[in-house]
């Protein structure tokens, strides 16, 4: 009979996790949740784990992440969280990036059914913005768009801004513009 | 408290989304148990309703999760099924990645057994994919598969009513002949089982198109990484682009699978055990294992609502009440007030001892209510 208590087993699992993942998953997941502004359910969904599995890994009831695709996504999230922490990536960009991570490495193979948190596959704002940008730039050059924006500036300031931001501005500004004008 | 649908099903919390419509955990007031309820707009419900009518009573198999009953109101239809708590094969692979071959054999055998029952009724499922293969929450015990979501299932040879029947389904889990627009037929389901098998063994969505191309160019491809050779022989026969060259029946595939399983190596002792978790969260506040918890006193309207079951048909109940859905704890103006004017003494006892009082109880109550109402109106008129 195994006489070790569940507490001992959890301590052992956390030690193993430290070896495999650099730190116990409870600590790691809590940090990601804090840095990226998530909750447990959302973190589980981005990683492609079920909520009960996430909770078992956090508490040390289970030591190892079985799905290599999840380990990959975890690595991507850690990098993202570091970038957010040192200010290289804004919260808005991080949200879009998390969508990409969720879809990466086969999350889409889960399909949408029976996933209450997943919802429909709505393209990320960044992707929508890139589509708009590429469409505009396929029509004319950035310089032309800027001069068109100048011509419209007095009569139609908002349209002028649209052309300037999506046609010649930075992608981040365009994403911010897009999100400010959603719904 | 949740909305009550058609006087019978109290919606508890959303537990997922199907191809069309949301799936709720619901309390069946009449059978006094929790069920899964899929709520559909009347328009979307058409094909599923037809399916329920024609098949549900006959496909009764431990590995099939077919709709059990339905109810309707003005705009929506609700289908109920057993509440299956362990998530789907998609969840399982999400949590564990590629699954051990022997474990996969057990899952496939059960899936094929369920499919045998479906095909025996002349029904082609047409949408077999990991997310539609559900699991009972069996923990570390033997898994228990339930083939679900008959939303686009069709009886073989039945005319397709609309063009949309051509495009529904899940790209990626389609058989090549299905993509080419062939009439729905059983071998297409077997192809989909082959893809599900690959998904379980590799942990990734298989590239059906690439497989078909390789088959057509070079014949049976070599076993993909992580797929043991004996098992691949079976799966490759399911995945043959030519429907004629697949197994004829799910039973044929099961036999080959059992033979292949004999040849698989013993499982690794160090393997972490696979646990099929209970994926449903705890019941929300206000609900217990025995249904909604009515905190209010005996003259709470709940008594009458269970009593309503005595009228048996939801339609009849809807006729009495006016327009469902409504919330049982928010007293409807008028009716409930009339009820509360009934002498309180004998009602709670009746409601508690007899979960579903018969018309014998309900009719006098209604009569008294109508009398009280009349007296009220008379009093108003006099004043």
UniProtKB/TrEMBL annotation, chain A:
Keywords carried by this UniProt record: DNA-binding
Q: Which GO terms describe its molecular function?
A: DNA binding
Q: Which InterPro entries match?
A: Lambda_DNA-bd_dom_sf
The protein here is known as DNA-binding protein
Automatic annotation (TrEMBL), chain B:
Going by the UniProt record, its keywords in alphabetical order are: ATP-binding, Kinase, Membrane, Nucleotide-binding, Serine/threonine-protein kinase, Transferase, Transmembrane, Transmembrane helix
Q: Which Pfam families match?
A: Pkinase (PF00069)
The Protein kinase domain extends over 9-264
Question: Is 4Fe-4S among the key words of this record?
Answer: no
Entry's InterPro entries? Kinase-like_dom_sf, Prot_kinase_dom, Ser/Thr_kinase_AS
What transmembrane ranges does the database entry give?
361-381
- Asked whether the UniProt record includes Transmembrane helix among its keywords, one would answer yes
Highest taxon in the source lineage: Bacteria
Q: Which SUPFAM superfamilies match?
A: Protein kinase-like (PK-like) (SSF56112)
According to its UniProt record, this protein's enzyme class is transferase
- Which EC number(s) does UniProt give? 2.7.11.1
| CDD domains documented for this protein | STKc_PknB_like
GO MF annotations in UniProt? protein serine/threonine kinase activity
UniProt xrefs under PANTHER family = MITOGEN-ACTIVATED PROTEIN KINASE KINASE KINASE 20-RELATED (PTHR43289), SERINE_THREONINE-PROTEIN KINASE NEKL-3 (PTHR43289:SF6)
Q: What is this protein called?
A: non-specific serine/threonine protein kinase
Q: Say which species the protein is native to.
A: Streptantibioticus rubrisoli
């Amino acid at each position: 009979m195994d006489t070790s208590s569940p507490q001992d087993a959890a301590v052992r699992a956390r030690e193993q996790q430290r070896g495999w993942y650099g730190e116990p998953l409870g600590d790691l997941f809590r940090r990601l949740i804090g840095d990226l502004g998530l909750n447990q359910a959302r973190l589980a969904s981005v990683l492609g784990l079920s909520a009960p599995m996430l909770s078992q890994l956090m508490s040390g009831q289970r030591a190892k992440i079985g799905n290599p695709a999840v380990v990959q996504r975890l690595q991507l999230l850690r990098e993202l969280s570091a970038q957010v922490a040192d200010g290289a990536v804004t919260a808005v960009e991080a949200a879009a990036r998390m969508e990409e991570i969720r879809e990466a490495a086969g999350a889409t193979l889960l399909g949408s059914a029976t996933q209450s948190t997943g919802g429909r596959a709505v393209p990320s704002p960044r992707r929508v913005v890139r589509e708009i940008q590429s469409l505009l730039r396929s029509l004319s050059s950035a310089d032309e768009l800027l001069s068109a924006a100048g011509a419209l500036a007095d009569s139609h300031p908002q349209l002028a801004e649209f052309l300037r931001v999506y046609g010649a501005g930075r992608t981040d500004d365009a994403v911010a513009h897009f999100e400010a004008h959603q719904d | 408290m949740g909305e009550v649908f058609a006087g019978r099903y109290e919606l508890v919390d959303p537990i997922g989304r199907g191809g069309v419509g949301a799936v709720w955990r619901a309390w069946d007031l009449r059978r006094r148990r929790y069920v899964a309820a899929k709520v559909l707009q009347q328009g979307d419900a058409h094909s599923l309703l037809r399916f329920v009518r024609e098949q549900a009573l006959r496909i009764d198999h431990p590995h099939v999760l077919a709709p059990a009953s339905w109810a309707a109101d003005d705009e929506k239809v609700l289908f109920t099924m057993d509440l299956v708590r362990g998530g789907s094969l998609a969840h399982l692979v999400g949590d564990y990645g590629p699954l051990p071959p022997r474990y996969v054999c057990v899952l496939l055998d059960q899936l094929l057994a369920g499919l045998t029952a479906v095909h025996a009724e002349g029904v082609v499922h047409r949408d077999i994919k990991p997310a539609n293969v559900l699991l009972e929450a069996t923990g570390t015990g033997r898994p228990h598969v339930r083939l679900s979501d008959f939303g686009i299932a069709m009886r073989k040879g039945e005319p397709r009513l609309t063009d949309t029947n051509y495009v529904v389904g899940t790209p990626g889990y389609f058989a090549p002949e299905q993509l080419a627009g062939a009439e729905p037929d059983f071998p297409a389901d077997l192809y989909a089982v082959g893809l599900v098998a690959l998904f379980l063994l590799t942990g990734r969505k298989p590239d059906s198109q690439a497989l078909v191309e390789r088959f057509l160019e070079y014949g049976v491809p070599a076993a993909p990484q992580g797929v043991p050779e004996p098992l691949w022989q079976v799966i490759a026969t399911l995945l043959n682009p030519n429907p004629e060259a697949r197994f004829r029946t799910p039973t044929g595939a099961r036999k080959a699978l059992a033979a292949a399983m004999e040849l698989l190596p013993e499982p690794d002792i160090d393997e972490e055990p696979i646990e099929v978790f209970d994926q449903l969260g705890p019941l929300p506040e206000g609900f217990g294992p025995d249904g909604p918890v009515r905190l209010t006193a005996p003259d709470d309207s709940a008594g009458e609502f269970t009593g309503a079951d005595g009228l048996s048909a939801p339609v009849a109940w809807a006729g009495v009440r006016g327009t469902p859905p409504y919330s049982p704890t928010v007293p409807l103006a008028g009716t409930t007030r009339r009820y509360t004017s009934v002498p309180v003494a004998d009602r709670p006892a009746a409601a508690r001892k007899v979960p579903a009082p018969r018309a014998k109880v309900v009719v006098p109550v209604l009569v008294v209510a109508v009398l009280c109402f009349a007296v009220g109106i008379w009093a108003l008129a006099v004043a």
